[in-house]
Amino acid sequence: MVRLPYLTALTTLLSYGILFVFGHLRDFFRKIFDWSKSNNLQGYAPICLGYEDFYTRRLYLRIQDCFGRPISSAPDSWFDVVERYSNDNNKTLHRTEKTTKCLNLGSYNYLGFAAADEYCTPRVIESLKQYSVSTCSTRVDGGTTKLHTELEELVARFVGKPAAVLFGMGYVTNSAIIPALIGKGGLIISDSLNHNSIVNGARGSGATVRVFQHNNAPHLEEVLREQIAHGQPRTHRPWKKIIVIIEGIYSMEGELCKLPEIIAVCKKYKVYTYLDEAHSIGAVGQTGRGVCELLGVDTADIDIMMGTFTKSFGSCGGYIAASKEIIQHLKRTCPAHLYATSMSPPAVQQVISAMKVILGEDGTNRGAKKLAQIRENSNFFRSELQKMGFEVLGDNDSPIMPIMLYNPAKIPAFSRECLHQNVAIVTVAFPATPLLLARARICISAAHSREDLIKALEVISKVGDLVGIKYFPVEPVKPNKVEHLKKIE
Amino acid sequence: MASEIMNATANALVWISSAFDAPTRAVVFGVPINGHLVVEALLVVVILFQLTRKSYKPPKKPLTEKEIDELCDDWVPEPLTPQITEELMIEPPTLESAAGPHAIVDGKEVVNFASANYLGLIGNDKVTDSCVGAMEKYGVGSCGPRGFYGTIDVHLDCEAKISKFLGTPDSILYSYGISTIFSVIPAFCKKGDIIVADEGVHWAVQNGLYLSRSTVVYFKHNDMKSLEATLEKVTGRSKHPEKVRRYIVAEAIYQNSGQIAPLDEIVRLKEKYRFRIILDESHSFGVLGNSGRGLAEYCGVPIEKIDIITAGMGNALATDGGFCTGSVRVVDHQRLSSSGYVFSASLPPYLASAAISAVDYLEANPSVLSNLRANVATLLSELSDVPGLVRTSHTLSPIIFLKLKKSTGSDKTDMHVLDSIANQVLKEDSVLIVSTKRSTLDKCHLPLGLRLFVSAAHSESGLLKAAASLKRVAGSVLS
């Protein structure tokens, strides 16, 4: 839960107020300046009307250099960030040839498979030579190779479900599967902080969408009882089916979802569950099998489990794992399976090799070591940050830790100063988070060594002092109390 | 009896009239209070009292907890997926080698007409070498969205290369072919805008149109007269042309029928009625035009007149992903408001470097386009007399689309017939062709058919073999 001090809330509102006022003033002068010049739109409506892109033009462009930084090496624990310069106050940025080696705290590289790996890369290159870069065909036409069927079986075995199906991109998995499962007359209840792909998929399906408070099982129960009792809006006919959509780890909060409670509620009311494990598969759990293993939930209780290969496996694409009937149905109707180019074979081989390493089937125990390393790294880093006085969100064992910044001016200050000291940090503001709750998000990887983490902690502590984000300083233990007690004795 | 009642009524009347004619008992504010004024005042009080009473409403009774419990117990959901019938359980063929013109399927070698490998770049050495180099340097995945350290220098190089090749100011890369068009359309079209789209566009375009929440009007497939009539109707109705954005959405080569859109006509209409064009060039980029620059070069239209061009790179360029190009304003707007770009991981770097080598190859060897055209012409001349099937695709389109001359009446039986033709051709003659498959979510109603994707790398013997086999099998199945 976010604890927002009153003074900070006031100063944040005041800062945004000043920025908006200045933005409006600039727009006003720009309108006057442009009124004299001729408009070359010739009767077409402009691409953005009025204040649709006010935030982009007046707030985002000022700090554009903190986002979209190009890199010129693999996104490993240390990488090369390309330097950029601007001649017109950040409106356009130009690349240079110079690069700086920085510590990578921003990429989703949980198990360290991002760079060339000794087991995976030779096999990937071999599959590239055998199957070439792409199949240029859809899965149902001529794009299914032996690698695809092998990976589907491996994924089903890894996740703990009877069958699985692959897609070439995680975003498309959500947007194209949800319409195939539910349509008009159905109800989707999704967590309030769900990812944009789930929101798009829910909207594209045509079903009614309701939201329950983030991670709040009693509120979910309340919403379910009300909706089942009242039925469809206006006609009051009973709902055809109800699906509850939740995520394993929420990427902006770093929190795990309260899976056992939510599954208990769903089973009681006979609704179907859909779990999106994009960030948690491969990264949490004793053997890397995700939140179900970590929280002790049987995989047979969840109807559909979805995940992506981008984060922990260092590849691209997504999967859906469910019962055999559901997978057969999806293979016949899901548009992403019927119309989209199949996943590139080298990417498939990368996932197969990475999964084999995690399961220990490559003959070494590197997988177990990586899983232990990421758990140790995350817990160490989080506890150290909290000891320094930062406000860190997220649960133990989760490799994502957001550090709250709040004020809009602290976002570029923190980001630029850290880059100056060779630490690459990701900062997130509106619209990915609520307006007042801007944060810096750190993703820990198994490739980070203890020295890397200590260096990162030093830099963050120094910059945190400069910028002033240590909102909850921990009181040091007072030694005189102990002496006082000793004196009494 | 009667006289008593008479007496009573007479007494009552006397009493009432005495009340009315009572002498003035008091004078209030200079108004003498007569008897009848008191009665009238009492009447007014009674009327006001009745008016202030609330009208009768039956009391609202919210459902008790017990009733809600009962309703929840009674409710039975539908199964999540419907039962699968036996006829739909066909497995697709499994490739055991690269999807080039000759591929190995289930152990035997086949001539492959199922891959959209138009320039024959599958298995090209230069492309493979650049991929190996990229994999050793960058790994496989990019591990982040474009805004958060997922932008690798090969992405920027690829975007620059594509815009230089096409002659547009700027371009933007997406990480998956179909997500390009269904992220671009909602980024530009919002509620209240007007879109005129062809009725034969494929599912990804339809999804983008639905997600944009704009008013969508369809015109008849590739029919310019219908387009003009629709534009006339739509502009007549709209009141504020300066505030409402208007778009025409079309594909260069339609996936569902193989026809080519007449771009010069569309541009003429767009300028007359003040619309913007969104053109999907997935199957025409690298195919049409003297140097492969797409439909604009083929029709002789300057590229600046087309506002937004999108394309998937999974066809001629033999990699994966997609791009969108246009003016600087168009591309910059997408970097923050296109959901498939902002909220998704970026394209793996080896695919971007494959795209760069593919465009290099196309620029260096424009003769591959004439090979492709010759192959298409050969196959078309051989297929001009297939019994029972008629061609609907354009003569220059590398997708050859054959539909049934006489449809059986329902889509399901049509698909059955076409599937049996395709399976027989594969089993007996080792030629891999595919029938179109439609999802239940697809709103397109164009007829189903058989598709052959011709590549520049197909040999003449392969083409002749495919044509002969198709004629034989179609003759036996459809007669």
From TrEMBL, chain A:
Keywords: Lipid metabolism, Membrane, Pyridoxal phosphate, Sphingolipid metabolism, Transferase, Transmembrane, Transmembrane helix. It catalyses: L-serine + hexadecanoyl-CoA + H(+) = 3-oxosphinganine + CO2 + CoA. It comes from the Eukaryota. It is a single-pass membrane protein. It is found in: Endoplasmic reticulum membrane. Gene3D superfamilies: Aspartate Aminotransferase, domain 1, Type I PLP-dependent aspartate aminotransferase-like (Major domain). Its EC number is 2.3.1.50. One of its GO terms (molecular function) is pyridoxal phosphate binding. The chain crosses the membrane at residues 6-25. InterPro entries: Aminotrans_II_pyridoxalP_BS (IPR001917), Aminotransferase_I/II_large (IPR004839), AON_synthase_class-II (IPR050087), PyrdxlP-dep_Trfase (IPR015424), PyrdxlP-dep_Trfase_major (IPR015421), PyrdxlP-dep_Trfase_small (IPR015422). It is an enzyme of class 2 (transferase). Its cofactor is pyridoxal 5'-phosphate. Belongs to the class-II pyridoxal-phosphate-dependent aminotransferase family. This is serine C-palmitoyltransferase. It comes from Rhynchospora pubera.
From TrEMBL, chain B:
Keywords: Acyltransferase, Lipid metabolism, Membrane, Pyridoxal phosphate, Sphingolipid metabolism, Transferase, Transmembrane, Transmembrane helix. It catalyses: L-serine + hexadecanoyl-CoA + H(+) = 3-oxosphinganine + CO2 + CoA. Residues 109-469 form the Aminotransferase class I/classII large domain. One of its GO terms (biological process) is ceramide biosynthetic process. GO terms for cellular component: endoplasmic reticulum membrane. It is a single-pass membrane protein. Pathway: Sphingolipid metabolism; Lipid metabolism; sphingolipid metabolism. It is an enzyme of class 2 (transferase). Gene3D superfamilies: Aspartate Aminotransferase, domain 1, Type I PLP-dependent aspartate aminotransferase-like (Major domain). Serine palmitoyltransferase (SPT). The heterodimer formed with LCB2 constitutes the catalytic core. Heterodimer with LCB2. Component of the serine palmitoyltransferase (SPT) complex, composed of LCB1 and LCB2. Belongs to the class-II pyridoxal-phosphate-dependent aminotransferase family. PANTHER family: CLASS II AMINOTRANSFERASE/8-AMINO-7-OXONONANOATE SYNTHASE, SERINE PALMITOYLTRANSFERASE 1. This is serine C-palmitoyltransferase. The lineage of its organism: Eukaryota, Viridiplantae, Streptophyta, Embryophyta, Tracheophyta.
